[in-house]
TrEMBL record:
Domain Uracil-DNA glycosylase-like residues, every copy: 150-296
Taxon lineage: Bacteria, Pseudomonadati, Planctomycetota, Planctomycetia, Pirellulales
Residue ranges of the region described as Disordered: 45-116
Chemical reaction(s) catalysed: Hydrolyzes single-stranded DNA or mismatched double-stranded DNA and polynucleotides, releasing free uracil
Name recorded for this polypeptide: Type-4 uracil-DNA glycosylase
EC number: 3.2.2.27
UniProt source species: Stieleria neptunia
Length: 305
């Protein structure tokens, strides 16, 4: 049975997401229609539909613009392309015992500046991509690389996947996650009922470290301006950090993936989820179950399962 409080909270989250990606107008909720809908679902448990709506509503208008009505009139969830791929047989299994709390005592700080429309986002990203292609901040990486790997995908995504750095296949093609690890990431994305084109995929450093070593801290700091600018343009609702390097770089922490998994963190007003890198999952297939648990945490929060 649908939980009205969860449904209304998810509608509110979607309304915030639409506003963040530049949708400037949403229809105003019709209170009579909302009441009729509430009656239709015959809310379970204690309390009236009105009480349920009160519980689900944001505590104040601070988290949503006054013109946005996170109620029955909000449009349905963003349609996503279906796909049959699955990470492992445990898809759809029982919920993991994870916290749904955001790991921040403070309210989310909004991304600075205005949220751009999609064509302006694409233009800004193209500009940064050109800068990256000419970048020589890291002496070793800029000499070793074949191509820089800026990132690709939906410029108004609900989800951005944030990896470590290009490998050999990515260095040759100039595209993120196209090797074996990329194929597994594509399956993970498809298991979430997204197509690759629905999400944005990017890395912490844009040049391949030699012999696939981890990027050095100085290289990460050199590239920070680029990945931060990307995220500021994209403003995804969720950022999925793939592995230790991206998680530690984004969240400025020294904690392990094991300590960071299982709850949401905050990066401006994006919710950040940390899970294992697909390369790690290829070497340790037993960890796929845990990675799928992580993705399900996001899917449930996003109202997509
Ligand atoms: S890794 Fe980033 S900062 Fe370093 S050379 Fe490449 S693009 Fe420039």
């Amino acid at each position: 049975m649908l939980d009205p409080a969860v449904t209304l909270a998810q509608a509110g989250g979607l309304a915030e997401h639409l506003q963040r990606i530049g949708v400037q107008w949403l229809p105003t909720a019709d209170p009579d229609a909302a009441a009729a809908l509430a009656e239709h679902f015959r809310f379970a448990g204690s309390g009236s539909p009105d009480q349920a709506a009160d519980q689900a509503a944001p505590p104040s208008s601070a988290s949503a613009p006054p013109s946005v009505q996170p109620a029955a009139a909000a449009p349905p969830a963003t349609p996503v392309a279906g796909a049959s791929g699955a990470v492992q047989p445990s898809v759809g299994g029982p919920a993991p015992a994870f916290s749904l709390e955001v790991d921040s005592a403070d309210p989310a700080e909004p991304y600075p500046g205005p949220s751009l429309a999609s064509d302006a986002r694409a233009a800004e990203l193209a500009k940064f991509s050109e800068q990256v292609a000419a970048c020589t901040r890291c002496e070793i990486l800029s000499k070793c690389r074949t191509k820089t790997v800026f990132g690709e995908g939906n410029v108004s995504p609900r989800v951005a996947f944030f990896g470590e750095g290009p490998g050999r296949d990515e260095d040759l093609s100039g595209r993120p996650f196209v090797g074996k690890a990329g194929q597994l990431l594509t399956k993970m994305i498809q298991a979430c009922k997204f197509a690759r084109e629905d999400v944005y995929i990017m890395n912490t450093v844009k040049c391949r470290p030699p012999n696939n070593r981890n990027p050095e801290p100085t290289e990460i700091e050199n590239c920070r301006e680029y990945f931060q600018a990307q995220l500021e343009i994209l403003r995804p609702e969720y950022i999925v950090c793939l592995g230790l390097v991206s998680a530690q770089a984004l969240l400025r922490t020294k904690l392990s993936v094991g300590r960071l998994r299982g709850k949401f963190h905050q990066y401006f007003d994006s919710k950040v989820l940390v899970t294992y890198h697909p390369s790690y999952l290829l070497r340790n297939p037993a960890a796929k179950k845990a990675a799928w648990d992580d993705l399900q945490l996001m899917l449930r929060d996003a109202g997509l399962m």
